[in-house]
Write a structure and sequence with these properties.
The protein has about 290 residues and is mainly alpha-helical. Helices cover about 75% and strands about 0% of the residues. The chain has a domain at about 5-50 and about 130-280.
Amino acid sequence: MDIELPIGSLVAMGLVLTFGCLGWIWIFSATQKHQRKLREGMAWLDWRPLPLGMVFFFFSSIALGLLLQVVGFMVFGRFAGVEQLANLHPLVQLLVSTLSMHVLIAAVFLWMTRNQSIPLDEVPALRHKHWWLKFPQGLAGYLLAFPVVILGAMLTQAVFPRFGVDLEPQILVQSLGRFESLPQRITLFFFAVLLVPFCEELIFRGYLFPWISQRTGFWGGLVLHSLLFAWVHMNAASFLPLFAFSCVLGISYVYTKSLLTAFWMHAIFNAVTLVNFFLSRGTPFS
């Protein structure tokens, strides 16, 4: 699916890319300060208590979520009189896939935390008196992530076609243009910009990243949990960009010791992606 962005969007992306590259230059020019903050974050990541059997519950929740997805799509498909998933209304796809996977797994992890009386400010570092104050850190993290994501997308376009890999976007992404009314787009933004980033950050950065890091070391945990994050999206075209994005999310999470920073980064990333998509189609939010 080819998307032609308007000049304004291209200029904005160029500015974001420039600020992101300047941010990396600034980071590498003050390495001692940032290395100290990162070492402190690694130590913080290593001691926090985590629920026993967490990975078992994670994969069990995925299996249950997949089953619920199949049942949900079958029920809604029969009710709507369609046989293929792509023919279901994208709002139905969004609701079924999000509730059966993201919300289910996040709920399981929160239940495990509560069941073991583990404070949320330890796992997954979620408490903050003024949660909106983490937005500037999330915006800065997004600027840093943008060049890395672009690099991942360029590598994908350059390498994957040589091996005959299909680079079609996800089914839901292909269906975004079918969100036509304002209520549908508001629902889309609530799920894609708020609910899904919150659940994914809770699952991957809040739990899996620390759990894996405590067994493989920081860099092993960063790479392995990012591979898992990219894999669960089940799309070749987005695998390398999402892997790169997850690595920056993980580093930012450790550096700031707050899941809210990663959440804002993720929310901004999804919001910008959606806005660019609709602007490219000449369809304003009205």
